[in-house]
Amino acid sequence: MDLQGRFITIEGGEGTGKSTLIAGLTQAFRERGIAVLTTREPGGTPLAEQVRELALSKHENEGWSPLAHALLMNAARQDHLDRQIRPALRAGRWVISDRFADSTRVYQGIDGVSERFLKALEAQIVGETRPDITLILDGDPERLQERRSLRGVSDVFEARDLGFHNAVRDGFLAIAEAEPERCAVIDALVSPEAVVASGLQAIDTRIGLP
User: Fold this and answer.
1) What percent of the chain clears pLDDT 70, i.e. is strictly above it?
2) How far apart are CA 144 and CA 159, in angstroms?
């Protein structure tokens, strides 16, 4: 088997089913004998998980500025890359990350941090460790509202209004349009089985499955 690691990122708005897709991909990879690491952003290491708590928790009458959020996300990403993602890839493991740099571009970009600044940070932190493929789960945020409510999760982004969630969707679709060689858009509103099948097909087409 090819021992080269592969880096797969899963992106999309709130409630699009990233966790379900990741679980399905992980099971399918292990059935094929692929050693896989599943992780998330912000997070993935003890230090980065502490940053996640700082960045995403809601605090009454106070909060981080958009620029501070961007810096926090990239600080967590640096540790995540150094301690988890790069070592796993060097060891020949496949890595699936629930969110990566695209989320910072979209979320902090919507809040007003300049695209130029975000791309400069990304270039410095990510360097050559670019995803081999990014699967973007897409669905009408209004139709996904019930899913978001049922999850019982509420953070500084989840709790925002429908206009924000529509802007998030538009941001991810813009990235997919700009980088079609890396990104594959998957319908998040079909059955979980169909979502996983579409993800596996996209991965096999772009980078190949054993």
Assistant:
1) 90
2) 13
